[in-house]
Amino acid sequence: MEGSDCMENITKGAVVLKAAPTAADMGLINAQSLRELKEEEIFTFRVAAADTQVDRDFERFSRSCLEKLAELYVGKPFITDHNWSSSRQMARVYAAAVEDESGVSRLVLSCYMLRSAANQPTIDAIEAGIIREVSVGVAVKSAVCSICGADKSRGCCEHRPGRAYDGTLCTVELGDPTEAYEASFVAVPRFTPRPCKPTATASTAR
Prior knowledge:
This protein has three helices and ten strands, in the order βαββαβββαββββ. It is mainly beta. The strands form two sheets. A seven-stranded mixed β-barrel has the order 1-2-6-5-4-10-7. A two-stranded antiparallel ribbon has the order 8-9. The radius of gyration is 18 Å and the shape is elongated.
């Protein structure tokens, strides 16, 4: 992680949440499409993609980082297994926002996919709770040590994430994002996510 001016393609876990499109959602979705889509043609879901809590890698996103990622993620593809191929594109992010609950800020991505014969097995698996793990890939420019304030993306410091120094746990705050590449359905995310409630499957867009 240390010694680079930009931490490229960081992958973090996420979780699929229930969603159903509103009229406003349909407007945002149609801003992404080349023809006007109808509600019955699409399946929508929300992803709690990242938050300000410390994960099992002892990293956390700053709220300002999440706010910038919300801007960067709109229009980005949803794929499978981080396979950067057009044939693996499943859905697209049409909106993103930072939501606050119980002192935690979360980046929530709103996504849509077409209801088609090819996508129906994926939709069925999401609704059944079989597919609900997601991993997101982003790039950030800063990774600040909680102990000394050093930017680990630019050079080493003596503190190691996960270790305690004088009773204080060392963590790393990620910030200054430069890119949101994609979000992916995966079998096992990089870390076990702390989901928003409810942690149920995505609902249909009916």
